[in-house]
Amino acid sequence: MKLVTITEIQHKRMVKSLKLILIFAILLAIVFVISMNTGTVRLSPQEVFDTLLGNSSDKHHIILYQLRLPRMIIAIMVGASLAISGAILQGISRNGLADPGIIGINSGAGLVVLLIVVMKPTSTGVNPYILPLFALIGAALTALLIYLLAFKKGEGMTPTRLLLVGIAVSAGLSAVSIILTLRLNPNEYDFVLQWNLGNLYGGNWSFVLALLPWTLLLLPYVYYKSHVLNLLNLNDALGTSLGLSLEREKLYLLAVAVGLAASAVAIGGGIGFIGLMGPHIARKLVGPKHQFMLPVTALIGSLLVLTGDTIARSIMKYSELPAGIIITLIGAPYFLYLLIKSK
Amino acid sequence: MTTLVKPVKEKVKSEEDIVIKSRPIFAISIIAVGIILILIGMVTSISTGAAGISFSVVLDAVFHFNPSLEQHQIVYNLRFPRALTGALIGAGFAVSGAIMQGMTRNPLADTGLLGINAGARFVLVVVFAFYPNMEFKYLILFSFIGAGLGVGLIYAIAYFAKGGLTPLRLVLAGAIIGSLVKGITQIISLVSGVSYELAFWSAGGISAVEWFQVKVIIPWITIGLLGAIAISPKLTILSLGEEVAIGLGQGTKVIKALAAVVVLLLVGASVSTVGGVGFIGLIVPHIVRFLVGVDYRLIIPCSAVVGAVIVVIADIGAKLINMPYETPLGSIMAVLGVPFFLYLARKEKRELI
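^ inputs. structure came back:
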């Protein structure tokens, strides 16, 4: 971390940001408690508390520890990863509408996961630790393809072309996915559909462990690169004159954004709009400075996914409603609003 | 990545060009050749499939139908309606795309990309989930409503957006409308448990089309196509830009409303039989404009014919690519359309944001 000279305004900003980070952390904690009580089997706060202390029935213990908690922790990690991934993409492309879902990175990861489901030899299920790696391959190839297609000699990669190319690639990948999907039997189809819609795997600590290293390694790295993202927000000429090799930094950050999105998508399924909403709301609240904006972004992302998942669990009593749908219902109108408002 | 080398040919006219260049002779020959190709394509389509049927039997079934022969039954009840529907929806989607491109002056305006197809599909799914036994002639009305909602939403966004809708923002809006509608559609299919059955249909496939559906859509598509031809002279003026149109004393509101009705009829009827098929309306008008110029009196009928040819041929591919499985038409069109879309996205010189 570079030390920033703290002027009066900066100091105010910092105090405000810290306040907000605290507020969101408290909100997240509140939703977490509510979420623990919510589901097909409702547990009262008292029962949750008893279970946590370890004096309750086995049934409650299983529900909480085996089903609910891992799912909630995954929701928190997925939300933070997707939101930060979006923040990076928006920073790199200087386009407020960039999001890993919109530019097709999610579909790339999703297609590979689908391939694995289609080709898996037996019904033993898919190894959770392998899944993010495969998704990463898919996401990275997609990102590379988008980058190459959006790149033009003499112009580099314009934000507009990046988005358009992303939409096109996304459409192509969806078409291939559909062809594959139609070869599935109803059970496999159901798994893929649920996964595609962003249904967080319940009841599996191994998925938590599979996602954990990605989140723990990549999020701090992005924070460490805050100053670079700040410079990227200015224009390229200024950045270069300040002694940054911009293209290289951009590529590193792009790789990290892809890694975050891929791991989140591999475990949490195709949840869209988090990468769009998180950074936007954070910027509105604390301004564009990434040192302050990134933590708020991550918290908002977590809050959104955890809330979405909790709502999804409370609405559908017998079949699982994916969190991704709930988030889409909130995110899509928000996006259209941004689209109309942007100059 | 090498930049695409452009052939030194006459480029498609930019909208700044007020001079209308058109090639009527060319257009008439496209229509004539196209109709012949449609007929050849339909006969080929009817004879291909899981059970191969020779051309002579196909012609026999058409001209000397004998209900006691199984092959005649297959031709008459399954293959023929399918081929005919392919031609109809090809024309429908292509003309809708041409209208939207002319009206929004946006090279990327395709009813699939704009979320209009998704709108029609959405309302159909809702009705399908709650009234699975509704008669098709009433079901199609809901499809019109859905397509109308899609068009209305695009109009509304264009109206409220600051600085109008650039191609990029239009496509983004369409993508988002699409994903929103998909989300709601999926909730409904999850709740009502029809998702597996709906998967194929919403991927765009014509395999299960029957006569009763064809009979319902023929009049609607015909009305839509005639309507499109009727408004085509005004579309040409509108495609030169709002200011020019107003300068020439043309009221734009009425034309936009009429165009919306035509699009919702064509899209609603097409989606109700085959689900959402995108990219036909993106590709076809570009090819046609390149060939016949910028006069919509020529673009509309030529788009109808070229769209029909492409879909009839693509549907033969749908049967053959992955025998014995069907490949959804929507996916085939996307695989063909995406490179084209990429080409347009890279070619775009103007600032799109």
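Chain A touches chain B through 51 residues (CB under 8 Å). The longest helix of chain A spans residues 58-93.
thumbs up if we can close this ticket
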